[in-house]
Design goal:
Strand content: 35-45%
Strand order of the largest sheet: 1-2-3-4-5-7-6
Structural class: alpha+beta
Number of helices: 4
Number of domains: 1
Mean pLDDT: 91
Helix content: 25-40%
């Protein structure tokens, strides 16, 4: 007789303002994994660990970006940046952007991406944001489906959004009024 144990999966989402060494290592690890899987928010090749460390430290130091992380059993497994305009851009002070949203390949399928979006929307409403905008490469089919299912509306496309392996990739632009 064999017994299968089901591991309990605990999902949590929070905002990081001060990076611990463990969180920084988690962020760098999942970034490398996502880039290797083709979804590293713009990077096509894995940069050095020094560059990744600098990138994540800069994001948490920037008052215009909220670093939202999703954790599986306490380990950072995905991120999303909820970004605002500089204070002098008054006409867009109530509009935020979702940027660099990804989940590590090993953590996909648990609802973490959706949980980070839900958390971002609540945070945005608390900060008097009226609309969230974002863009996605057409090749990121799961992300397109996810945002469509979360009632984000397509408002436009850019046929020359990204240039990868000698070819242009179309980008799709979404918004959701809160």
């Amino acid at each position: 007789m064999s017994t299968q144990l089901k591991e309990k999966i605990n999902i949590s989402v929070d905002t990081i303002q001060n990076l611990s060494e463990v969180d920084l290592a988690d962020l760098c690890n999942i970034t490398e994994q996502a880039i290797n899987a083709g979804g590293g928010f713009g990077w096509l090749r894995v940069p050095t660990r020094e560059i990744l460390n600098q990138y994540w430290k800069r994001i948490t130091d920037d008052g215009l970006n909220n670093l939202i992380v999703g954790r599986l059993n306490g380990v950072i497994a995905g991120t999303l940046q909820l970004s605002y305009e500089a204070p002098n851009i008054e006409s867009r002070k109530n509009i935020a952007q979702i940027k660099r949203h990804f989940v590590a390949p090993w953590a996909r399928g648990y609802g973490l991406a959706k949980s980070m979006i839900d958390f971002s929307e609540v945070k945005a409403k608390e900060e008097n944001i009226k609309s969230i905008q974002l863009s996605v490469r057409e090749t990121q089919e799961a992300a397109i489906q996810l945002f469509s299912n979360k009632d984000y509306k397509v408002w436009g496309e850019n046929p020359s959004y990204a240039f990868i392996n000698g070819s242009f990739i179309k980008g799709i632009y979404f918004y959701k009024n809160l």
